[in-house]
């Protein structure tokens, strides 16, 4: 499963950061996930919880923020496709991909390039540390 390997990578990064900062508990993990990434947020969250079960991240809240696709045109136009537009136009991910791939620049009408929406990054990690003095 695709989500499992991603969840592993995220878990390793989270644990590396947590260890570096002397964390005793990981409280929140916030991800930014592009709408065009081939990843299911529920499955990813489920996999992360399974992997983190024996770790200090076992009770962490796993928050996924969806990022809309963004476009760029050679005329200088940049923009994102808003959530409302996506919901009205596309029921499935395959429809979304086709929809975004066919996007034209609203300024000059040329084919726009997709510049965002495939990312999957850890936005922030919130940890608990034990102060020893
Ligand atoms: Zn243009």
Brief summary of the model shown:
The protein is α+β, with helices and mostly antiparallel strands. The chain has 4 helices and 6 strands; from the N terminus they run αβαβββααββ.
C-alpha geometry = elongated
Average predicted local confidence, pLDDT: 92
**H/E series:** HEHEEEHHEE
- The stretches of 5 or more residues where confidence is low (pLDDT under 50) are none
Can you describe what's shown?
The protein is an alpha+beta fold. The chain has two domains: 2-68 and 117-129, hypothetical protein PF0899 fold (2-Layer Sandwich), CATH 3.30.2320.50; 70-115, no CATH class. It is built from four helices and six strands. It has helices at 2-20, 41-52, 83-89, 93-101; strands at residues 23-34, 61-67, 70-72, 78-80, 113-116, 120-129. A three-stranded mixed sheet has the order 2-1-6. A three-stranded antiparallel sheet has the order 4-3-5, with no helix packed on it. Strand 3 (70-72) and strand 4 (78-80) form a beta hairpin. The protein starts with a helix and ends with a strand. The mean pLDDT is 92. Bound molecules: zinc ion. Zinc ion binds at residues 73, 75, 77, 105, 107-108, 110.
């Amino acid at each position: 499963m695709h989500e499992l390997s991603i969840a592993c990578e995220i878990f390793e990064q989270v644990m590396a950061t947590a260890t570096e900062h002397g964390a005793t508990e990981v409280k929140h993990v916030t991800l930014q996930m592009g709408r065009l990434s081939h990843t299911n947020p529920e499955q990813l969250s489920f996999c992360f919880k399974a992997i983190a079960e024996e770790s200090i991240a076992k009770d962490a809240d796993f928050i996924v923020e969806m990022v809309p696709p963004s476009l760029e045109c050679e005329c200088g136009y940049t923009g994102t496709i808003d959530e409302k537009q996506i919901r009205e136009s596309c029921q499935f991910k395959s429809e979304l991909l086709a929809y975004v791939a066919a996007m034209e620049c609203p300024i000059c009408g040329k084919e726009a390039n997709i510049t965002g929406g495939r990312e999957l990054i850890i936005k922030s990690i919130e940890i608990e540390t034990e102060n020893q003095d």
